[in-house]
From TrEMBL:
Residues 92-213 form the GST C-terminal domain. Residues 4-86 form the GST N-terminal domain. It comes from Kordiimonas lacus. Gene3D superfamilies: 1.20.1050.10, Glutaredoxin. InterPro entries: Glutathione-S-Trfase_C-like, Glutathione-S-Trfase_C_sf, Glutathione_S-Trfase, Glutathione_S-Trfase_N, Thioredoxin-like_sf. This is GST-like protein. PANTHER family: GLUTATHIONE S-TRANSFERASE GSTA, GLUTATHIONE S-TRANSFERASE-RELATED.
Length: 213
């Protein structure tokens, strides 16, 4: 009997691959993990550049050799394979359109503030300009989180009564700047969702490995 080949997830501790780990775990999708050091996947001549020429994580190599990048794409792939997980509303569900809007909004609006803010030197050579970009992206991120806090139902999950991919993003991303204490004081609904996801026994090992708690 031929042994099934699992997808291989390429990631680094504490990064966006933690979101994908959580999603695959909750979906019940078996996978193997290649954990890389930060900076390792920036090397242009390493083996990872053949997996993802953009040298960005997460990347998921499927059994047939197809490589999926972008956390939202991987999340939707897993949710479609495991509709019983409820991580994405079904295509004909009335809440599907709103779910897609907010999922893409997260990865298109908030996520890029880390892309630019974490490494401003890649975009601005002057030290003063790099510091200003870092501060501007931090300020913009907080404004975006306030917008999300005011816009979603949070009853009790971000989209309402069913936990979705969006809640997984919130649980991971609230661990990044400006971090949980800020959310507790400024965006208590987002903070409550993050705490609720944290409490899921199935994800205990994922959060411990990536964030130490």
């Amino acid at each position: 009997m031929t042994k099934a080949v699992k997808p291989i997830l390429y990631g680094a501790l504490g990064g966006g691959s933690a979101i994908v780990e959580a999603v695959l775990t909750l979906a019940g999708e078996p996978y193997d993990m290649v954990t890389m050091e930060w900076g390792e996947f920036d090397q242009t001549d390493d083996a990872f550049s053949k997996i993802n020429p953009m040298r960005e994580i997460p990347a998921l190599k499927l059994a047939d050799g197809t490589v999926l990048t972008e956390s939202a794409a991987i999340g939707l792939w897993a949710a479609d394979r495991h509709p019983e997980s409820g991580l994405s509303p079904l295509p004909d569900a009335p809440e599907r359109a709103s779910f897609l809007r907010w999922l893409v909004w997260l990865v298109a609006s908030i996520y890029p503030t880390f892309t630019y803010g974490d490494h401003p030197e890649r975009y601005i050579a002057e030290t003063a300009g790099a510091k200003a970009l870092r501060q501007a992206t931090d300020d913009r991120r907080q404004a975006l989180w306030h917008h999300m806090e005011a816009s979603l139902p949070f009853a009790p999950w971000a989209m309402g009564g069913q936990m979705t991919l969006i809640d997984i993003y919130i649980a991971a991303m609230t661990r990044w700047r400006p971090r949980r204490t800020w959310f507790k004081e400024n965006c208590p609904k987002l903070y409550a969702v993050a705490e609720r996801v944290d409490a899921l026994p199935a994800l205990e090992d994922v959060w411990q490995k990536n964030f130490g708690a």
